[in-house]
Design brief:
It is built from 11 helices and 5 strands; from the N terminus they run αββααβαααββααααα. By secondary structure, the chain is α/β, with parallel strands linked by helices. The chain has a 5-stranded mixed sheet with strand order 3-2-1-4-5. It is globular.
Length: 236
Amino acid sequence: MSSKTYPTLEVEQGHFSAGFKYVIGIDEVGRGALCGPVSVGVAILNTDAHSQSTDSFIPWPAQLADSKLISEKIRDQLFAPVADWVTGWSVGSASNDEIDEFGITGCLAKAAVRAVQALPSEIRAEIAANPQSALVILDGSHNWLGSSLGQVRVTVRTKADRDCVSVAAASVLAKVSRDREMIALVEAEPDLKAFGIAGNKGYSSQQHLDALREIGPTRWHRRTWLGKILGEDALF
């Protein structure tokens, strides 16, 4: 992997210098899957531990990068060090049934709110009391969070998961968490093995598509997403 694809703290440092105490990286995983939830990772950095201008600065784990650019083995190895490095983190999800009912964009916001609600209570209380102390870096090209985080400022950045350490951390934490959830689901639901979910994690591999056409969708599939694969009459 080129050094250009490793993230830095440059963007976060700019926000710390502007007076923000907390920089919150947010990224989603599972948006394009046919099966299982969509998940959103939240990773919080604070100026005391993560500003390079402080004596207490703690370097981020080596090999941390956008989860899409590193192997499953490396992601698993990074999970614990990244979770220890950040000030706080969490992952929230919205189910396949919710995606069918509310659509993917609404469910991204739902998952993000659930992730924020699962953050350490002390951090949530401090940010709630002073929303101007925190800023979100959201990966993507548009603000799918909307106003779901209240008065906390959101800045949207394309390829933030590649360029910003906080968002790369959120990406790895979300990806590993969702992957583990999908593997556990297969262990609990043996019928899913035919779809290759343990390997494709719900995405549209050839084995997954072939099984959908042969067996049909399970209760874990996003049925409103399967029209082009199975035909509109086969969805329900």
